[in-house]
Amino acid sequence: MTDLMPILGYHHIEFYVGNAKQAAHYYRTAFGFTPVAYAGPETGVRDRACWVLAQGDIRFVFTAGLGPDHDVVRHQRDHGDGVKDVAFAVPDAEEAFRMAIERGAQPYREPEIISDDHGKVTVSAIKAYGETIHSFVDAAGYSGAYLPGYAALGPDAESAGTKTALTAQPGEGVGIEVVDHIVANVELGRMDDWVDFYAGVMGFTQLVHYDDEAIKTEYSALMSKVLWDGVGRIKLPINEPARGKRKSQIEEYLDYYHAPGVQHLALATADIVATVEALRANGVRFMRVPDTYYADVRGRLDWSAIDEDLDALADQNILIDADDEGYLLQIFSEPVQDRPTVFFEIIERHGSRGFGEGNFKALFEAIEREQDVRGNL
Ligand code: FE2
Fold it and tell me: Which helix (H) or strand (E) holds 200?
């Protein structure tokens, strides 16, 4: 057993995209995030533009390169828009890096202290699956909007000493509060290597294992193991494709992302019906399960312990699953870029620590109908 690496939570999730300004606009207007910080030519950063948006405890960063030879541009060419960095807040970024390397992780960024008028931050990073990285960020001594070098946006920007005239309208939050889990897709046969990585390097343990019998449709199957930090701040399911009659959704992802990477991010809300209503009104589209799903769950689940109006859930096509510990509500967006790669889950938990195992079949059949429309099943 490896001692758990001290991790306080997610610091931010960084996406490499083709057009960060438009991505920021989409996540503000569609998902209700508020732009809080920016770095780019106006702030003295010559080679890239980074927009930082926040909602609840969640911070997303959208970065685009500004020239043809920039690594962010190369990354976007290879993978399309996708998640580059699942960054953890840690008490000591130098120590976290040292421990990770000692336990076999590959370095991405040596520990570095960066500072501005608002204080100093220590950052480092290690490599994970595909081109994904994990940054370690110790920002306890920092009072600025995001990290040193970024200008604050929004109503407080002037008092925060912003040198730029950039402003941004706040988003109208939709009630999403915290990252619940972040799922990786890896190649056939590689799931256990990455389970070993998170166990060995981070000291995570396996919360649950879904085999290809649990996650299968008529056409395809996948396997999944969930690593977690033992307290629930960090939960990282890892999927690999299993052999089936046709191409699995994991293989479709790998074909279009051209590498292992983040498949979906689950964002938690305390009121999923209101959140999904708001997202739909903003134009976000979700996977649909057939109406027969609701007749099925009405009979399948023990409703004595579930305080929900099934008709309200059915109206929004929200899924429900229950286990010994409680229940959960969930829904999955369509992919949020042209390539059928990254999508979002919205989740509301009532005691259950599961991932909606009872919904896998209905959900994956819905995904396969979309795959078929794309000619990829
Ligand atoms: Fe999920």
Answer: helix 191-202
Q: How many CB atoms lie within 10 A of CB 138?
A: 23
User: How far is ligand 1, taken at its centre, from the CA of residue 1, in Å?
Assistant: 27
Which CATH number is 9-152 given?
Answer: 3.10.180.10
User: d(Cα 280, Cα 241) in Å, to the nearest integer?
Assistant: 31
Cα–Cα dist 26/20, whole Å: 10
Distance 332 CA to ligand 1 centre (A): 8
The dihedrals phi and psi of 25, each to the nearest 5 degrees, come to: -65, -40
Q: What is the Å distance from ligand 1's center to 59 Cα?
A: 19
Each residue of 181-212: pLDDT tens digit?
Answer: 999 999 999 999 999 999 999 999 999 888 87
Query: pTM here?
Result: 0.94
Quote the ligand 1 centre to 361 CA distance (angstroms): 14
The answer to whether 9-152 and 176-374 have equal CATH topology is yes
What residues form DSSP beta bridges with 54? 34, 59
